[in-house]
Amino acid sequence: MSVEIGLEQNPGDAFRSTVRLSSGDSPRLEFQTYTAYLRTNPSTLAEVGRCPEFDEEDAEAAILAAHTALATFRTVPPRQRSRILRSWHDLMMENIEDLACIITSENGKPLADSTTEVKYAASFLEWFSEEAPRIYGDTIQASNPSCRLITLREPVGVCGLIVPWNFPAAMITRKVGPALAAGCTVVVKAPAEAPLTALALAELAHRAGVPKGVVNIITASENTVAVGRVLTTHPMIKKVSFTGSTAVGKLLMKQCSSTLKKLSFELGGNAPFIVFEDADLDVALRGLIASKFRTSGQTCVCANRILVHRSVYDRFIELVVDAVKTFEVGDGFGDKTTHGPLIHQRAVQRVDDHVKDAVSKGARLLHGGQRLPLGPNFFDITVLADMTPGMRICHEETFGPVAALFPFDTEQEAIDLANDCEVGLAGYFFSKDASRCWRVAEALEVGMVGVNIGAISDPVAPFGGIKQSGFGREGSKYGIDEFVTTKMVMTGI
Fold first, then answer.
1. Which residue from 270, 200, 236 is spatially nearest to 18, judged by alpha carbons?
2. Smallest Cα–Cα separation from 307: which of 207, 381, 413, 201?
3. What integer pLDDT is reported at residue 457 of this predicted model?
4. Could you tell me if 348 and 376 are in contact, meaning their C-beta atoms sit under 8 angstroms apart?
5. CATH topology of domain 271-458
6. Alpha helices in 212-245 (DSSP H)
7. Quick check: helix, strand or coil at residue 487?
8. pLDDT at position 1, please?
């Protein structure tokens, strides 16, 4: 599999980029875009492509296109919208190798992980293609017997969707799928770090029959703040969905207040991962590897604080270190690579700072803990033991390949440590005690709980958090509620 980028100079210092993915001599997925800012592979620093640097005027044009298309698209029968989404899903699956190649090229994750992401991303289109015809209202008995009362669920309108780089395919389809199923049109702000995936998905949407103006993609790097402000303040945007940091979410929420938009925010996490004394340690280890090290720790639901009962603490540490020693860090296209680079040098610096802070305050460094000579974006898989509450990892999301282990003595102590956090996205724990499983699941202050499992993402499951991890749910039967409004109609007879 190869990625070929062809650039053609045009008047006005613009570029037209042809992105062609091919296997042997047979090109399969090809699309073009005018280009302005450079994207490089975080593993090799080689040029991957150039994308349009949209400004405020371009963003407003995209919003107007979505607004114009809304008048027609909202009246498209649900079953027809369902067929369009299913066709988009099928095209993603037909082009799975190409899409995976693009993801690995621009965000560095191993090709096998990128392939898994494409399947996951496509599953949201399939799920919401099935939900589109099932947007039901209600018939309600009015207090006045001479009146009849019904509710209608209608599309909220034009939606501004701001997506992250770590899952550049899945975070788009998880938002666009329910929006289109509900009859909305969208303007998607693609992540500056991984814009080509968004453009490829838009090309497949076009081929699937998504009408012109229904799905609009904005790419920008230096102008990200400016176009984000347009999306959050423009009166034609009725709904904003954002996945990203809590700090940015607060800023966007403040901007959205000027026009009182409907919001759903999936923000930062600091997931606790609890191993009780009666846990199956092999199961817990598999859960930890799935939760902590996926995408080199760069997911919002990664385990950030690993709390282990003192009676099994030393044994579990041995298992973790032995497992980590089998990992292979390298280029995402490498045959033996299990973990790729971090997205950029700022991410590496944050991980390095967290590790140094912990060690300076008494943590034991058992593996890794340093940058790797593979390139500026590589940091070794790291294991820290004897963590204490005063360390930065306790209160800040590391977003990197660092397993930080804390000992505890009682169930209540573990719950208190887990809940001692401003955010509440995901939490995990491992125990064979059925009563404890229900007790702890209800006690954890998070939006999602994994009990004896470390991978909780599923298109049929509601994804979202509480506290400063945001509000609203994506995926599942609840996901479409974020893109509809409820209208009451009362008639006198």
1. 200
2. 413
3. 95
4. yes
5. Aldehyde Dehydrogenase; Chain A, domain 2 (3.40.309)
6. 224-233
7. strand
8. 39
pLDDT tens for each residue of 220-269: 999 999 999 999 999 999 999 999 999 999 999 999 999 999 999 999 99
DSSP string for residues in 56-81: HHHHHHHHHHHHHHHHHHTTS-HHHH
- How much is the pLDDT for 187? 98
pLDDT of res. 39? 82
Give pLDDT, residue 24: 44
Burial of residue 392 (number of CB atoms within 10 Å: 0-12, 13-18, 19+): middle
The 3-class SS string of 416-467 reads HHHHCCCEECEEEEECCCHHHHHHHHHHCCCCEEEECCCCCCCCCCCECCEE
Q: Which amino acid is at 19?
A: V
* Angstrom distance (rounded) from CA 44 to CA 384: 28
DSSP state of 483: G
Helices (H), 95-184: 96-107, 111-131, 170-182
CA distance 292 to 463: 18
Q: Which amino acid, residue 212? A: K
pLDDT at 185: 98
Predicted confidence at residue 14, as pLDDT, reads 38
Q: Name every residue whose Cβ is closer than 8 Å to that of residue 157 and which is 6 or more positions away in sequence.
A: 70, 184, 185, 236, 237, 238, 239
Looking at residue 12, what is its pLDDT? Answer: 34
The DSSP symbol for 94 reads H
From 53, 266, 397, 411, the catalytic residue: 266
36-267+471-488 CATH, one of 1.10.10.60, 1.20.1250.20, 3.40.630.30, 3.40.605.10: 3.40.605.10
Is 266 a catalytic site residue? Answer: yes
Euclidean distance between the first and the last CA atom of the chain, given in angstroms as a whole number: 67
Give the sheet arrangement for strand 2-10, strand by strand: 2-10, 14-23, 26-35
Name the strand (E) or helix (H) holding 237: strand 237-243
Question: 271-458: same fold as 36-267+471-488?
Answer: no
Cβ pair 27, 34 in contact under 8 A: no
Domain parsing of the chain, residue ranges:
36-267+471-488, 271-458
Low-confidence ranges of the chain (pLDDT < 70): 1-36
Token pair in block for residue 160: 């501004």
By the 8 A CB rule, do 177 and 124 touch? yes
Q: What is the pLDDT of residue 30?
A: 56
